[in-house]
Design goal:
The complex is a heterodimer of chains A (about 475) and B (about 625).
Chain A: H1 3-28, H2 32-54, E1 59-60, E2 66-67, H3 69-93, H4 102-119, H5 123-141, H6 148-179, H7 184-193, H8 199-216, H9 224-231, H10 234-258, H11 265-286, H12 292-315, H13 319-347, H14 363-366, H15 368-382, H16 388-402, H17 406-431, H18 436-439, H19 448-466, H20 469-479
Antiparallel strand pairs in A: 1-2
Helix pairs in contact in A: 1-2, 1-4, 2-3, 3-4, 3-10, 3-13, 4-5, 4-10, 5-6, 5-10, 6-8, 6-9, 8-10, 9-10, 9-12, 10-13, 11-12, 11-17, 12-13, 12-16, 12-17, 13-15, 13-16, 13-19, 13-20, 15-17, 15-19, 16-19
Chain B: H1 9-24, H2 30-56, E1 63-73, E2 76-84, H3 86-109, H4 116-135, H5 139-157, H6 164-195, H7 200-210, H8 216-232, H9 241-244, H10 250-259, H11 262-271, H12 273-277, H13 280-303, H14 307-327, H15 331-358, H16 371-374, H17 376-390, H18 396-411, H19 413-438, H20 452-467, H21 493-514, H22 520-524, H23 527-537, H24 542-560, H25 565-585, H26 592-612
Antiparallel strand pairs in B: 1-2
Helix pairs in contact in B: 1-2, 1-4, 2-3, 2-4, 3-4, 3-10, 3-15, 3-20, 4-5, 5-6, 6-8, 8-11, 8-13, 10-15, 11-14, 11-15, 13-14, 13-19, 13-23, 14-15, 14-18, 14-19, 15-17, 15-18, 15-20, 17-19, 17-20, 18-19, 18-21, 19-21
The chains are: A mainly alpha (about 475), B mainly alpha (about 625).
Chain lengths: ~475, ~625
């Protein structure tokens, strides 16, 4: 390993270092504010390290990890998302009893796992990253361990995650048995060299897809989503919804491109069926939901379904455009999802999570600015023009149309229609007159940190919605570096 | 040419007035509202006077001012352009001058109304829209003003919106004129697709050079524009909204009838007269519509008992005269009558307003009587106004109506005869009103002296109604001069009959209502007399006709399709979605064993699909 490789690995090394520092500082003295500051500083330092690594990319640092611009820019996105979640975590946990400092360590390890995941080009690093991420998440979900719902959610996630990892490993074993390779490119060469369809490889990929599909909550592996979203603390839910899913999706993209798996038309068919089901079932489940966190969970299922459309388009004729669309959609999804859960987070008190729709009744009259921010997030999720969500959805349509995936686009349209209904339902609820008892209660369980984070997210949402050029250019310049 | 460049400010001042009052009006004191509301129109009026003086002392060349581009798409070019010639100037005088007096009067009339600021905001917008309409150099900008006027009429007729009937009247005015507007919009499209311009002067030039007289295209285009004019000017067959428009406050009626709105149709035809001359058939239809309208409305006015409805029908009838004039090619006579009519009709309405305010907002003239002594101001206003309306010699109405009838005689004696008959009717119904309201036994009224803002406009309008006929604006610079400009004043049976008819009308009114020599009751109490009275009273049952021809079938169709067939598609979609939601929701059981087994089952199914496909 030479110096430039270490330089390229700098972000991951820095992040690991930060974890140890935070751990040590907690061991010396417990102080939530101080630990939060170190954590934030560590994430910022990692971002600086990213800039240093930029010039050395693309580089295959070891057998396991490839640092390229695509990985680096998504690392940056994940780290920024982590920073935003950290902000909400600070406000959410600062007033809660118990020892909250370890939460920060787990947040960092989860970020580390996600970073490894998106840079991995090998089954070993793939599994390693995924497990670092997952195990951190189990604990994060169960962090308020004196409550029933988080524990229940964590146990469910733990068990089902175990099942999915089993599928994943079985798939890897199938593939290894056939080609004797664990690296993505090696598998790709093997697949390309085969003249006929290899049943074992196909089954292997399908098993891997099942494992990954669980993390992405694709139908039929989606059943856990609502329960876990509901049980986890609001900022952690935002983390699961964005960092975990985003990293896994980026990995899926990399695996399919490196291993050249779109050669199998069966896979395209399967993904199409799964995508249609995911879009329809996700949105249908959200339709009459009155529990806001569950509603967002189901809508997230639908959104990953939309992402799959771009993913499938990559397998047909427009790979560059598809990667670009998927990346843009992911960024849009990050901004809006973190924003939406951020609002829920600042409305939650240690006594009660703000998850019932009735909590939001009359929010416009009580806290107009907060309600406006939530409205903005929901409109963006619904894909209304002038928000970043609209541009994202437009991208999905463009790539779907370029790939001639008319059936999938029909599902997207139906899904968007359903989506509009339940997002607007929440907005309408916020404009309703509040019941007498609820009128005076002004809950804002946030400090300037949450306020600033929500403002930045709202501004980004509108900025990228109105002038998407900057983001589009950035994504274009990095997405072509994917091998 | 310095002052002319200020042309654009004429509609802008009332617009600013509207904006200020609409945004801040509720925070202003009444005094400030009056200053803004009346002041903005006063400034416009002063500006018109200055510009008019400069223009008339110049060479009378049309002045064209383009402020900037409004729409610019391919070969569609619509600028914010204003065009000033003698016709525009006449309209500007009327709109701002009479408009200002009505605003001033409103300060007194509406003084105790809670919607004082709202009222002046609407009135300012009304004047502004009308000014845009008459100043526009292209048909699209004209249409903007046209629709603005329509909107304001809706807002003002329904001003006292708490009474649902006023709302109905407002909607009726809006919808009826909208029928005409649609025709006009189609006309605009036709002109643009055929002649590739919206600029009125360019259009007229191109029409003259590209179209032959009497061919199909100018015929259709003129007919469509006529549709718009008929709607706005309340002519047959779209006249039914005007009598109901009396639901608005009296100054609004004055503004609609005298200065704005109903004159728009006349102005449109005069402005596009080249087009109508290319379509002689349509032009004849204009004359025919005018004649029929003036007779039918005159008859209706005879039977009304509501003081404002009488005036409303008289307006329809007088606009009929203007259409008659337009139809026979007496363009400048039409505009001249438009101007004099503005003076005396404003006077009549404002006087009626005084009567109504002093008499507990009662409109029935047969409950009034003997107001001659108690309200001399209103009395003299009515006498002068009615004299001008009847076209008694040397009043303003006399000059204009005389011109129209003379031109009608040149065109067709039948039209002239109908016009004379109309003049007779005018004499009867005008003075019936005067005699019933102001003579006879005195009835007690509220003794509130009307304030000076209400009196000054009455005085000024009386002067204008009397001597306005002497005002001559050189309209001949705009219109083709008729071969026979002035009828000679020597003895001539036609002239004598024209002169005598109104007086005969006054005499008949006097015999019936002043001296009581004849009694109407005798004639109308039984049989066909009553039928005729009912026929007149109900405006020839046009409303009933429309009701049974259009409204009721439409309503029946609506009831038939009450649960919209098309809706079922959407309701069905919603129902299916809801059903599916409840179906799929069951899968979210919360049991881990079910979740895990569904994952396994799903994987098996997917592998099966993968291997079998």
């Amino acid at each position: 390993m030479n110096i430039s490789q270490i330089q390229a690995l700098a972000p991951i090394i820095t992040l690991s270092g930060v974890i140890i520092i935070v751990l040590l500082s907690i061991a010396i003295k417990r102080n939530f504010v101080f630990s939060c500051t170190i954590t934030a500083g560590g994430i910022l330092m990692t971002l600086v390290a990213l800039v240093c690594a930029w010039q050395n990319a693309p580089m295959q640092t070891t057998l396991l990890i490839r640092i390229d611009h695509y990985a680096l820019s998504f690392m940056a996105l994940l780290l920024l998302a982590g920073l935003a979640v950290l902000g909400f975590c600070y406000d959410y946990f600062k007033t809660r009893k118990g020892q909250n400092e370890e939460l920060l360590v787990l947040l960092l390890t989860a970020l580390l796992g996600a970073s490894v995941l998106i840079a991995s080009t090998h089954f070993a690093s793939f599994l390693m990253g995924l497990e670092i991420l997952s195990i951190s998440l189990f604990v994060l979900i169960a962090y308020p361990s004196n409550q029933r719902h988080p524990l229940e959610a964590a146990i469910k996630y733990l068990i089902l995650s175990g099942v999915s990892s089993a599928f994943l490993l079985l798939g890897m074993a199938f593939i290894y048995a056939q080609c004797g390779e664990l690296g993505f490119t090696g598998i790709g060469h093997f697949i390309a060299s085969q003249s006929a369809m290899n049943i074992m490889i196909l089954s292997g990929i399908i098993f891997i897809m099942a494992g990954v599909g669980f993390k992405l909550s694709l139908v039929p592996f989606h059943l856990w989503t609502a329960d876990v979203y509901q049980g986890a603390p609001a900022p952690i839910t935002a983390f699961i919804a964005t960092v975990s899913k985003g990293a896994v999706f980026v990995l899926l993209l990399r695996f399919f491109i490196s291993a050249d798996s779109f050669i199998y038309s069966q896979l395209v068919n399967i993904f199409s069926i799964v995508a249609v089901l995911t879009i329809l079932i996700g949105n249908l489940l959200a339709l009459l939901q009155t529990h806001v966190k569950r509603l967002l969970a189901y809508s997230a299922i639908g959104h990953i379904g939309y992402l799959l459309v771009a993913f499938i388009a990559m397998g047909s004729i427009a790979p560059a455009l598809a990667v670009e669309s998927a990346s843009f959609y992911l960024v849009a999804y990050f901004i809006t999802t973190i924003g939406a859960f951020g609002v829920i987070s600042v409305l939650s008190t240690p006594q009660s999570e703000a998850d019932e729709l009735s909590v939001y009744r009359g929010l416009f009259w009580r806290q107009p600015v907060l309600a406006a921010v939530f409205t903005l997030m929901l409109l963006s999720l619904a894909g209304i023009p002038l928000t970043v969500g609209f541009i994202g959805k437009f991208y999905i349509f463009t790539s779907g149309a370029a790939g001639r995936l008319w059936g999938l686009l029909a599902a997207v349209i139906v899904g968007s229609g359903l989506g509009l209904y339940y997002y607007l339902r929440v907005i309408v609820m916020m404009t309703r007159n509040a019941e007498k008892s609820a009128v005076e209660s002004k809950i804002y369980n946030g400090t300037w940190i949450s306020t600033a984070t929500l403002s930045v997210l709202s501004i980004l949402l509108l900025w990228f919605g109105i002038y998407p050029d900057f983001l589009v250019n950035t994504i274009q310049s990095v997405s072509y570096t994917l091998p | 040419m310095k002052l002319l460049a200020l042309l654009a400010w004429i509609p802008l001042f009332p617009l600013f007035g509207f904006l200020v009052l609409a945004l801040l009006g509720t925070r202003f004191s009444k005094k400030l509202v009056s200053w803004v509301g009346i002041g903005s129109v006063a400034i416009s009026a002063a500006l018109v006077a200055l510009i008019g003086f400069e223009y008339l002392s110049g060479s009378l060349q049309p002045y064209h001012l383009v402020l900037g581009s409004w729409m610019e798409v391919d070969n569609l070019l619509v600028p914010f352009g204003f065009y000033l010639d003698a016709l525009t100037l006449t309209m500007l005088f009327v709109v701002t001058g009479v408009g200002f007096l009505i605003h001033l009067y409103s300060a007194g009339f509406m003084h105790s109304d809670p919607g004082y600021a709202r009222f002046f905001a609407y009135m300012n917008l009304f004047v502004s829209a009308m000014l845009v309409l008459v100043l526009a150099d292209n048909l699209v900008l004209l249409y903007l003003g046209w629709e603005g006027v329509g909107l304001c009429s809706y807002l003002l007729i329904g001003f006292w919106y708490k009474d649902p009937n006023n709302g109905y009247a407002a909607r009726k005015a809006f919808i009826m004129t909208r029928i005409g507007d649609t025709a006009m919009a189609l006309g605009l499209f036709l002109l643009f697709t055929q002649l590739h311009s919206f600029d009125i002067q360019t259009l007229m030039l191109r029409a003259n050079s590209q179209w032959t007289s009497g061919s199909a295209l100018p015929l259709v285009a003129a007919a469509l524009l006529l549709g718009g004019a008929v709607g706005k000017s309340a002519q047959l067959p779209l006249q039914t909204w005007l009598p109901d428009a009396m639901a608005g406050p009296t100054p609004v009626s004055a503004l609609i009838h005298a200065a704005t709105m109903v004159t728009a149709g006349v102005y449109l035809i005069a402005r596009t007269h080249d087009l109508f001359m290319l379509a002689p058939t349509v032009q004849f239809v204009v004359a025919l519509i005018g004649t029929l309208t003036l007779l039918l409305a005159g008859c209706s006015a005879l039977a009304q008992t509501d003081i404002k409805r009488i005036l409303a029908y008289s307006t329809i009838s007088q606009i009929g005269y203007m259409f008659l004039a337009l139809g026979v090619g007496a363009w400048s006579a039409a505009i001249f009558h438009l101007m004099t009519h503005a003076f005396f009709k404003a006077l009549l309405f404002l006087s009626a307003g005084v009567v109504i305010v002093r008499f507990h907002h009662e409109h029935n003239i047969f409950k009034m009587g003997g107001f001659r002594k108690t309200m001399p101001m209103a009395f003299w206003g009515f006498v002068i106004g009615s004299a001008a309306l009847t076209a008694l010699p040397f009043t303003s109405g006399f000059y204009s109506k005389d011109l129209i009838l003379a031109a009608a005689y040149e065109s067709s004696p039948m039209l002239w005869f109908a016009g004379c008959l109309g003049a007779l009717l005018t004499g009867i119904y005008s003075f019936r009103l005067v005699f019933v309201v102001f003579f006879g036994p005195q009835i007690h009224t509220i003794d509130t002296a009307s304030s000076w803002p209400m009196n000054i406009p009455l005085v000024l309008l009386s002067v204008l109604a009397l001597f306005g006929g002497l005002l001559r604006i050189p309209l001949d610079s705009v219109f083709p001069v008729l071969p026979d400009a002035q009828p000679d004043t020597s003895f001539d049976p036609v002239a004598v009959i024209t002169l005598a008819m109104p007086m005969l009308g006054v005499l008949i009114a006097a015999l019936f209502y002043l001296t009581g020599t004849f009694s109407v009751q005798r004639y109308v109490s039984h049989g066909w007399g009553n039928c005729v009275r009912q026929l007149f009273f109900n405006g020839w049952y046009v409303d009933a006709l429309y009701n049974s021809l259009v409204v009721r079938p439409f309503k029946a169709l609506c009831t038939l399709n009450k649960n919209d067939v098309v809706d079922s598609l959407y309701l069905g979609t919603a129902g299916i979605s809801r059903y599916l939601y409840h179906l799929i929701r069951r899968s979210q059981s919360g049991r881990v064993r079910w979740y895990a087994s569904s994952m396994a089952l799903g994987t098996v199914v997917i592998i099966a699909i993968g291997l079998l496909s």
